[in-house]
Amino acid sequence: MVSGKGKCIVIGAGELSVSEVLTEEEDYVIAVDGGFSYCSQLKLKPDLIIGDFDSVSEKKREAIEKLKEQMPHRIITLPPEKDDTDMLAALKHGLSLGYADFRIYAGCGGRLDHTLANFQCLLYLKNHNAAGYLVDGDAVIFVLQNETMEFKGNMEGILSLFSMGKEAKGVTLRGMKYPLADYTMRNDFPIGISNEFTGQPASVSVRDGALLCIFSYKANCAI
């Protein structure tokens, strides 16, 4: 985990797979485009609403326009034709405020290309000295790059690893059902899928490269 001034909570416009999002006073909440529609359901008051609002209902769009008149600093309207996705623009804003721990909800499901783009956004955060966690029901998705992550012995569930580049070198898995030692993981061979925790402390290391990690966990084992 990345320590700092609290978390940046980001609500996307994908499929909402949680019934609540716990926040603390120092957290900063961003609603991304159609993610604004989920905020009332989650009882969240976003500090910022950002997007081109192409996936927002007419009723919600009117609410956003009214809010923009009252508190313009809480709304950023993006052009529909741009290089950054709405999600990436939201993450860049959070980075500009000094946040280094991002929790992204409703960032999966819906359009597959948007989900894949959000995987790339996790790598963007890692490349900018931050950590991002895509929360999808009973799974959390994150990126490891040139680092080691330790897991406690009480972890239960499935951990799948995928190279985000052509190769991820020096991949070492300890304490897992299927260990690896100084392995070169390639992006054309899914050897890292469906590993399992064994009830003992475990670790994942990658010496040179980036791994997309999908941890499907059981109750009380979330990262």
Notable traits:
single chain, 223 residues, alpha/beta, elongated
Q: Would you write up a description of this structure?
A:
- Strands 1, 2, 3, 4, 5, 6, 7, 8, 9, 10, 11 and 12 form a twelve-stranded mixed sheet that branches.
- The model has no long low-confidence stretch (mean pLDDT 91).
- This protein has helices spanning 36-42, 58-70, 86-96, 112-127; strands at 8-11, 28-32, 48-51, 75-77, 101-105, 131-136, 139-151, 157-163, 167-174, 180-186, 195-196, 202-217.
- By secondary structure, it is α/β, with parallel strands linked by helices.
- It is 21% helix and 36% strand.
Kindly state the percentage of residues in helix: 10-25%
Give the structural class. alpha/beta
Radius of gyration: 18 Å
**Percent of sequence in beta strands:** 35-45%
**Annotation, overall tally of beta strands:** 12
Low-confidence stretches: none
Number of helices: 4
- End-to-end gap: 8 Å
The overall pLDDT average reads 91
Q: What are the secondary-structure elements, in order, as H or E?
A: EEHEHEHEHEEEEEEE
What overall geometry do the principal axes of the alpha carbons give? elongated
Largest sheet: 12 strands, mixed
